[in-house]
Write a structure and sequence with these properties.
- The complex is a heterodimer of chains A (163) and B (248).
- Chain A contains 2 helices and 7 strands.
- Chain A is of the alpha+beta class.
- In chain A, a hairpin with a 4-residue loop joins β4 and β5.
- The longest helix of chain A is centred in the first third of the chain and has 12 residues.
- Chain A starts with a helix and ends in a 7-residue tail after the last strand.
- In chain B, the strands form 4 sheets. Chain B has a 7-stranded antiparallel β-sheet with strand order 4-14-13-12-9-8-7. In chain B, strands 3-10-11 form a 3-stranded antiparallel β-sheet, with no helix packed on it. In chain B, strands 1-5 form a two-stranded antiparallel sheet.
- In chain B, β13 and β14 form a beta hairpin.
- Classes of the chains: A alpha+beta (163), B alpha+beta (248).
- Chains A and B meet through α1 of A and α1, β3, α2, α5 and β9 of B.
Chain lengths: 163, 248
């Protein structure tokens, strides 16, 4: 109990230290571990800005869209601005226009409020089945989140001109 | 005819008879390693390996220095709870059989959390100490998530600022061997331990990390903070800290 008492005192005044690039260009990226295996976990990465990173953006994979309750959080490597309160970002029910880094491409973030991720997986599966039609008949599927208690997918944003 | 007995007034003021120093010096109640009914392998998406990890070799000295130079005699002597109350917390945990990870979490929350929050945070009418401590809080996936993305076994919370200062996991100490600890320090692939970031980093107030062991049973504290950045594992069956590490 003395050790815990000492730690609780020590913890009380310690400031938080967010991960930084330690002066290097780029941004901090926290990769996800493989949830299906217990192998070694990845380390924190520093990724280069878009201009210095010539790697093409990967196709549909686990990204980290923002959980609905966490606006403007750290993972700037994926989502730039998520401002659901702005009228111009609001689409239909629980869908918003956001920007995807590093290229600041507009995408659509679609969310479900329930903790059950069945709907998210169903939608992702459906989009993957429709892959030949991506970009022509249906928007391209970009990613699904892999956060606990968060269910969202990212889709290509298609601007439809007013008729 | 049955007469409803007169209820007890549990809200009445109680004269404490145990000093803070005596409570803190009381060993944690022992628990028993029962036949395990489940294996626990960490497969969380939020696992991250630390960049650097080193032993906090001066932990014992630092702690003794704190008690010698920072904790006042008045704080040590202050009466904070009753012997019968402490005994009840103790009996609730003493010799309990631990089969799963969930079961080792319970003794921690039943004894260490409650007793700590009495002596360190003035819970249940105890006089708080003159230095301010974070309180131990439970974490769940709902409203009690404290803004964390994941769910840790417990957390320490700065109640004045409303921010989490430590997140912790409770593990089985008797499953961690000295060799495995050396391997972790030496940076071996973390089959033993994995650093899990369960944090909401959108604001600097919520930066934290959890250390999780895949198949061990130690109480881990991890604070990737400027000064401490500490990881401590406390043997729940003993009042002595087995090992303290600092991950800078």
């Amino acid at each position: 109990m003395m050790a815990i008492y000492y730690l609780s005192r020590l913890a009380q005044d310690q400031p938080d230290t967010p991960e930084t690039t330690q002066g290097r260009p780029g941004f901090v990226f926290l990769p996800f571990a493989d949830p299906s295996r217990s192998n070694a976990a990845p380390t924190i990465q520093i990724q280069l800005p878009a201009a210095q990173n010539q790697q093409p953006m990967p196709a549909a994979q686990n990204q980290q869209p923002m959980p609905p309750q966490q606006f403007g959080w750290y993972n700037q490597s994926t989502l730039a601005s998520f401002e659901p309160w702005k009228k111009e970002n609001q689409l239909e029910f629980k869908s918003w226009i956001v920007e995807l880094l590093p290229d600041r491409v507009k995408i659509v973030l679609k969310m479900w409020a329930e903790d059950d991720d069945t709907k998210k997986h169903n939608e992702a599966k459906s989009y993957n089945l429709l892959k030949p039609l991506w970009g022509t008949c249906v928007p391209s599927f970009i990613a699904e989140d892999s956060w606990e208690h968060s269910n969202s997918i990212a889709l290509e944003y298609i601007e439809v001109p007013n008729r | 005819m049955f007469q409803i007995p007169v209820p007890v007034n549990v809200n009445v003021a109680v004269a404490f008879d145990l000093a803070r120093g005596n409570v803190l010096a009381t060993p944690l109640p022992p628990v028993r390693d029962a036949l395990h009914t489940a294996t626990s392998v960490t497969t969380s998406r939020y696992r991250l390996r630390w960049n650097r990890l080193s032993q906090w070799a001066t932990f014992e000295d630092d702690m003794n220095n704190y008690f010698t130079n920072n904790v006042t005699a008045a704080d040590i002597a202050a009466l904070v709870m009753n012997f019968s109350g402490l005994q009840q917390f103790w009996n609730a945990v003493n010799e309990s059989h631990i089969r799963t990870e969930a079961q080792i979490k319970l003794p921690f929350l039943t004894y260490a959390k409650e007793v700590h929050n009495i002596v360190a945070n003035g819970m249940y009418g105890a006089p708080p100490p003159s230095d301010v401590h974070s309180s131990i809080v439970e974490v769940d996936s709902g409203a009690g998530s404290h803004g964390l993305v994941g769910v840790s076994d417990f957390a320490l919370r700065n109640d004045l600022e409303g921010r989490i200062t430590v997140v912790g996991e409770v593990k089985n100490p008797w499953k961690v061997t000295p060799e495995q600890i050396d391997q972790v320090i030496d940076g071996y692939p973390n089959y033993l331990l994995s650093l899990i970031i369960k944090e909401q980093r959108h604001s600097p107030e919520n930066t934290m990390a959890v250390l999780q062991s895949s198949n061990s049973m130690v109480t881990w504290f991890a604070m990737p903070k400027r000064l401490a950045s500490l990881l401590l594992c406390v043997d729940f069956a003993s009042p002595i800290a087995l090992m303290a590490l600092s991950c800078l």
